[in-house]
Design a protein that fits this description.
- By secondary structure, the protein is of the alpha+beta class.
- The chain has 3 domains: 5-132, Immunoglobulins (Immunoglobulin-like, Sandwich), CATH 2.60.40; 136-215, Arc Repressor Mutant, subunit A, CATH 1.10.10; 219-462, no CATH class.
- The chain has helices at 161-171, 176-183, 187-199, 221-258, 279-298, 387-397, 402-419, 426-446; strands at residues 5-13, 24-29, 37-47, 53-64, 71-80, 85-94, 99-110, 122-132, 146-147, 203-206, 211-214, 218-219, 322-324, 334-340, 343-349, 355-356, 373-374, 381-385, 457-462.
- The strands form 6 sheets. The chain has a 5-stranded antiparallel sheet with strand order 1-8-7-4-5, with no helix packed on it.
- Helix 4 (221-258) packs across helix 8 (426-446).
- The longest helix has 38 residues, at 221-258.
Amino acid sequence: MRLVAISLFFAAVLCLSASAQSDVQVGTIDPMKVLWGPQTIYAQVTSNADYPKFISTQIRIEFTGRYLNPKRSYRSNFVLEPGVTVAMPIRFEIPPNWGDAKIDLLMYDVIDTLDVYLPEQKIAEEHSRLTFHLPPDLFDHFQERISMPPFTENSPLFDSELLRLAFILFRAGKDDRAIAEMTKIDTVYLRQIIWKWKYYDFLAHAKPDSALRPTFPIITTAEAEEIRPIVNKTSSQLASLIQKNMKGYQRVVDSLMTSGSLPNDTNLVLHGGTVLFQKYPVVTALFLWYHLGRGFVGGNFPLDVYRETDPCNVHIPLWMYAVRGGDLFNGHHFINFSVTSGKPILQFADSIPEIRCPEVYPYADRIQGNEWNYASNDAPEFFVLDTTFVHPALRALGVGSEKILQPAYDALRATVEKYEPGSFVPGVNFWFWNQVATQTADELVKKRVISRRGNGHYRIEALK
C-alpha cells in the first residue's frame, strides 16, 4: 500500500452522556489509515447493560480545497450483547482525491437503527484530518479543469480529480499500472474502480490491441478551441433569428386569443396555453431545448438524459463527455425530459441547480434513486402546456432555423472526426448544444428580447 498523504491531524473525543455511561463504554478506537480506498478500523466497546444494546456508527468524509470535493457517508449497525467487550469493526472507503479530507466518526446508542440520530444518543466521536498532496509530476495536468455533464460531480465514479484524470490518461494510452504509478493510488484499488467503470459502460477494451479506453468522447483543449467559433456563430445567428421571429410568435399568440382558444389571463397557470405569455421559459426551455435541441443533440434518441437514474447517482453513458478547459468551454443549462404517469415532463434550469441527496448515497445495489430534491432556493416554477397551443408558436419562432443548424452540425462533425474518428456521438452534441443554448439565451437577455423570470428553473408538464 502506498502512503499518499504526508500530513495527518488527529483528534478524538469521547462524549458519554450521563444516561449512557453505565450502559455502554467506548474504549480505544483505531486511527485512520492514511490511504485511499476501503479500510476497516476497530473500536473497543463494552456493554454494562442486562439486555442487548443497538450501536450505530456513522463515518462522514468530506474533501475541501479543490474544484472537486467528494463526500461520503457510511453507516454500520451492531448488536452488543449484555456484559461483553468487543472489537467493533467500522468499514468505510476514502475516495481518491487530492486536498484536505475531514473525517468524522460518530457513535450512537440507539433504540432502533432506522431512526434519525438524536444528540443525546451520541456516545463517542472522533475527528481526523488528512492531507493528500498532488504529485509534482502531475502539476501540468491540472492547469485546466476536466469538466463532465451536470451532476456527474455527485457520482462516486466521477467526483474526484484523480478519477477524471484517469480517463484522460487511458485516452492517452496509459494502462492501469502506469496510472497507479503516476497518481500514487494503490493498483488493487484502482482495478476495483476500473471494474465499476467497465460494468457501467464508461470504460471498455478497444480494438485492435484490447487496451482500456473511455467509451465517451474526451475533448481536448485544442479541439474545444477550434469548436468555439462554431458555437459563437451558431448562438449569434440563433439569437438574431429569434429576435426577428418574435413578431411571428406574437401573431400566433394574438390569433389564439382572438379565437377565444387562449384566455387573456396569465394567472390561469393550469391552462395549457398560458405558458406562451412567459417568453423566457418558452424561448429557453421549450424552443432552444424542446423544439431545436432534441433533434440536434439526440437525433433518434429522446433527450431523457437521466432516464433510470437521477442527479444524485448519475449513470448517463449515452450523454457522457469530458472536456479540458473548465467553464470556458461549457454551457450552464440543466435539461431533462421524462415521463411520469404517462405525462411528458420537461425540467429546465438556466444554471445548474443545487440539489439535496440522501446522506447515505449512492445506493450500492442499484443505479436508480428517487430520493433527491431541489434546494429551496432552486425549486422550479411549475407550468403546464398543451401542444395544440404551444407547437404553432414554437414553429413561428423557428422559421429559418434549419439554415443555421445544418451547417453548424456539419462543421461540428467534421472537427470532431478530425481529432478522433468515430467520436461524433450524442455526448459531443449535448456538450456543444449546451454552450449554444446558454450563449443564445444570454444574448437575448442582454438585448432585452426576453427577461429572466424568477430563478430560471422550471418544470413544464404536458397535458397532451
